[in-house]
Structure formats: structure tokens, C-alpha cells
Amino acid sequence: MPTETFFKLPNEKKSKILQAAKKEIATAKIEEISIKNIVEEAEIARGSFYQYFTSKEDMLAYLIERQMEELKQKMEKELQKCNGEITEVFLTIYDCIIHQMVKNKDRKVYAKIFANVKAGEENYFLKPPKEEKQDFYEKYIQKENLKITSKEDFRIMISIFQAITSFSVGHTIKTKDFEKERQNLIKRLSYIKTGIEKGGSNVC
Amino acid sequence: MPTETFFKLPNEKKSKILQAAKKEIATAKIEEISIKNIVEEAEIARGSFYQYFTSKEDMLAYLIERQMEELKQKMEKELQKCNGEITEVFLTIYDCIIHQMVKNKDRKVYAKIFANVKAGEENYFLKPPKEEKQDFYEKYIQKENLKITSKEDFRIMISIFQAITSFSVGHTIKTKDFEKERQNLIKRLSYIKTGIEKGGSNVC
DNA sequence: TATTATATATGACACAATGTCACTTTGTCA
DNA sequence: TGACAAAGTGACATTGTGTCATATATAATA
Q1: Interface with A, mutate which of B122, B197, B201, B204 (most A CBs under 10 A)
Q2: CATH superfamily label, A4-54
Q3: Which of A30, A68, A172, B189 has the smallest C-beta neighbourhood within 10 Å, fewest atoms?
């Protein structure tokens, strides 16, 4: 978290610093992000940076948190419009994420953040906002048509969709074939909905 | 790739260097891996390191490739035993990966590599060996019982399983509740097999 | 064997980036 | 106006990187 000093800064200066940080993130490889570049771009002294943030990581974490906040807000707005079908919900989430990574003014920042999500950590993009860890997905998804008998099962089901959605976003960014990858995701979701096995009336 | 010089080295020395590198990877945060530590541990001069590898990344890539080679071999051996059912195949893959990350002498190296797989790049752990990009999975999976009509669909189906398996490994390493997470994966696989939707005879 | 050529090994060095700190400037309030 | 606190500054010590001229070992040749 930035220091109190940072928050007390005039908005212009704050925004200039954040803008410089975003530019650096968008431009440099994540492991080569340099405070030197940021302070030069923001036209502040090196020492000042450390008066605002305790470290490079501190700054990055703050910036990521802000961007995710923005994403989550847009996402919630879109999710309101869903009819509660789980596949629709996750397609919406996918669309929101892709939109941020392609159309948003900070698209390169989003893309860089996403590309650097590690398997060993939670995916910010799919992690529910802090207050509503458990209930976030329940709010938007109708359970009536699902083969679940417990909350635990519901969570397991959600995790399937999270994994698929995350995977699909990754692929989309790599191939940049937005049409195709969206269709692929739809196929994946439909497979999950009705099963991959032949037989039974669950056939597409 | 290491230089010719490196490969010409006596096995003992080579192995001492690789051992030092592994120790560093197992110990340090990925972004803090230091050649300094490696050369000290391996008791070679700093300059020598650069005679063997062109850069830190070069060394890491080589080491990762070696470890993945080892993993893939073990994996193929286990896959031979499978009956061709897609869920069994991916459970086997999961078990192999977890085994390497928990029981293998280089378990910490494997765990560190896995934890640092990024969303923006292919997951080494699930990427087929270089020669057999396309056919790797086809070799072990029976398609007869699957609702697929094209190679393309088969690949999409595989990608679902890859995503789930990777996700499950990640969770397992995080929670360290091996029993539970394996059961969760089994549930996920079963959901994918028969679908998550109520109705139809595909119910569990 | 002596001599030359080639390959390997070495650590001092230049460079680059980090985080700190003593000092300066600015702002506030009695 | 003065004096105290808050914010700003850039030189500095530190740490790690990759390079390079030089030293040493190994092989090849006469």
C-alpha cells in the first residue's frame, strides 16, 4: 500500500506518477520494470518514489489492485444483465476481460498483468472482490438446473468454469484470433454443460 | 542452450553446476535467482559461467527442459497403462505431476517451475514432447465414446482437460491437501464427462 | 621433447539499478 | 516573522550483471 504521503498528493501529481508506472508496465518486461524509468517519466526525484511506496512491489500491487477494481466494477454491471445460466455468466466474464485487454485505454496494462499471472497464485481476474469471496458467483448463477447437492459441489463446478475461462483468455491473447477463440470457448462451455460423452439425451 | 564447452565438460563438473543451479532455483524466488550464488556453490569462476551459458535465462531454459524431459518420460510410461478413457488419462497426468512435485528428489525445483508458469505462456507440464505436438494425446485417448466429429473438436476437448488439470495441480500445491484435491479433480473430471446439467440420462 | 596453437578458466572491471539518508525546500500556524 | 513539521531531493553505498584481457591447461605438430 502506498504511504499516507502519496494519498495526500494533489491529484495531478498522483495521476502523473500512476500514468508513468502504467507506461512502464505496458512497455517493459515485467521483470525489467524499473523505478528509474518511472521517476524519470513522472519527473519526480528517486527519493520521492520511496516516500510514496515502500518498494517496487508495493507500487505494482497497488496498481494491479486499482485496475482489478475497475474491471470488477464493469464486470458486475454486465453480470446484472445475465439470465443466471452458468455458461452465459462465464462467457460474459470472458467478454469483459477481453474487452479490457483489447479496447480499454489501459489495455496493455491489463494484458501485461494477465500474461504474468502465475499458476502458483490466484488469478486476480477471476478472484471475486474482497468483500464477497464466497457469494460472488452465487449471486449471478441459478443453481436450479445444475446437478449439485452441496455448496462444496457448487464451488467445484465454478472452479471448472474459472479454469476454462482463464485458459481461453490466455489463448485468445496469444493467438489474437478473437472470433475463433470466442467460438472455441462457447464450444468448451457447451461441452461442460452437456458432457463430452456420447449417449444419453444430453447430446447437443 | 548451453555452449559446446559446457557439454564437453567432465560429467562431474557439469553435474556440480546443474546441482548448484537447482539448489538456487529451489531456494530463491524466481526473480531473485542469482548467478553469483550459483557460481559460488558450484565453485567455478564467474567468467566460466558465461562460457557455459549465454545468460541466466539460457541456463534456466536448459534446466527446465531437462526436468520436463524427465517428467514426460515418466508420464509416458504411466500413460501406457491407461485404458484410453480420457478422464483416466488426465488423472494419470495429474498424478505424475504431483508425484514429481512431492516425492521426487528435485521436487522443489518442479514445484518452483510449476508455480511460475505464466498464463501468457504454454504450460510446460502439459505441453506434449516436441516431436509429437499433435498426436501425443491421440495416442493414449480413445475417441469412440466421445461426442466429437473433427480433429478440431478433439483438440478443444483436450484443452478443457488441460485447463482443469493445470488448475488442479496449482490448487493442490497451494492447499497441500493431496487427498482432498485429488478427489476434487475426480469430481471435476466426472462433471466434464457427463455434463453439469440436470436432466438426460447422463446423470451420475 | 620442444614449440606452437587452441580451448578453457579466471577475477577485476565497467555498468546499471536499487534503496537509503543527510540535507534542502516548502508549507503551516502561533 | 520564526520555528516546526512535512515533503522533496540527489549523491551514495550496495549488489548483481556480463565482459574482457590475461593466465593456464590441453592438444597438435615438428
Answers
A1: B197
A2: Homeodomain-like (1.10.10.60)
A3: A30
